[in-house]
Amino acid sequence: MTDLRRKHGRLDFDIIEPVGWRVLVRKDDNRRETKSGIVLPGNHEIPTLTGRVIAISKMVENDPDTSLRQYDKIIFDPREAIPVEFDPDNRLFVVPLDKVLAIFRKSTAATSTRTESASEFEMDEDEPPI
């Protein structure tokens, strides 16, 4: 499954496959500018805890109770994330599944749910406003 290449007298790998209850995450870039537009000097950066799931282990993939999938954007706890020396910019981390704190999702049902709940609370014409 792993494709090996030889570069500069050493083996380089093309694939990283996490094992156990782990995922491989490409960490988002640290921002050098605040939301209000202030540019941070020198090597000061705003640390990020977000990233994209690049690969998931077979255990995670086959678990019906886990909704995490490849390419999901997540928030993770970096304290137990293991950096991987695979890319020159070193933004890859192996993260235990229990250190994935949240998954970003878009919901199409949220709009219809809000509309349905609002109709439950419509006032009768005879009822005075609060």
Describe the 3D structure.
The protein is built from 2 helices and 8 strands. The chain has 130 residues and is an alpha+beta fold. The chain has one domain: 10 Kd Chaperonin, Protein Cpn10, Chain O, CATH 2.30.33.40. The strands form 2 sheets. It has a 6-stranded antiparallel sheet with strand order 6-7-3-4-5-8. The chain has a two-stranded antiparallel ribbon with strand order 1-2. β6 (82-84) and β7 form a beta hairpin. The model is unreliable at 117-121 (pLDDT under 50).
Give the strand line-up of the largest sheet: 6-7-3-4-5-8
Q: What is the average of the pLDDT values? A: 76
Based on the structure given, which CATH architecture is correct? Roll
Count of distinct structural domains: 1
Fourth-tier CATH superfamily name: GroES chaperonin
List the keywords:
alpha+beta, 130 residues, 2 helices, six-stranded antiparallel β-sheet, 10 Kd Chaperonin, Protein Cpn10, Chain O
